[in-house]
Amino acid sequence: MDVLLDGVVGALALLFSGDEETWAITLLTLRVSLGATLVAALIGVPLGATIALGAFPGRRLLLAAANTGMGLPPVVVGLVVTVLLWRSGPLGELGLLYTPTAMVVAQAVIATPVVVALVAAALQQVDPEFLVQMQGLGASRLRALAALGAEARLPLLAAGMAAFGAVVSEVGAAQMVGGNIAGQTRVLTTAAVLATSRGQFGLAIAFGLVLLLLAFAVNLVVTLAGQRGP
Length: 230
Hints:
Elements: H1 2-16, H2 20-53, H3 59-69, H4 74-85, H5 100-124, H6 130-136, H7 141-151, H8 153-168, H9 172-178, H10 188-197, H11 201-226
Protein name: ABC transporter permease
Family: Belongs to the binding-protein-dependent transport system permease family.
Subcellular location: Cell membrane; Membrane
């Protein structure tokens, strides 16, 4: 119990003391996680919409693959991305390994199947005749799709929040491709793991609580933006 109490006190102290290292770790965590979520959304939303609204061979296979990808082990993703970005790997010349960019790439791979599967599920719940009705009223294809997105905005926002939650709490891939380098690629999850390995349980709990507060703040903003009325 003393360890938990120390962790809570430590988290508050880290937040309100203006500790530069903690704020740098928190900001990097936010930047990497939001970047990965944005990339996943840019790829996953159109792909999920295509799967939900299209009629083409292999559609169900793609949906099954996306659903399976929601359980993709982060360590496996980290291993594959590390091999690709290794100096002797096919993308080694880019020099991205052990950088925040590599972390964004790995986490985007983790988050994209989540977005695809949830967007497809959300759009499949909308009345199949919705697009036809909108176009019958004179709306263009693009405007009809925008209206469809507005109709399913809450499930779509939920897909984004689920993707963000998957990456902001991820540690395996982040540690493998980022290296947990102080001042460069250390995020809240990897910092908590390091503190635990050193027996600094209070500090690890503090980092965990800061991570929870960060996730709550981002989801609160998204929820308030997506809700109408009180």
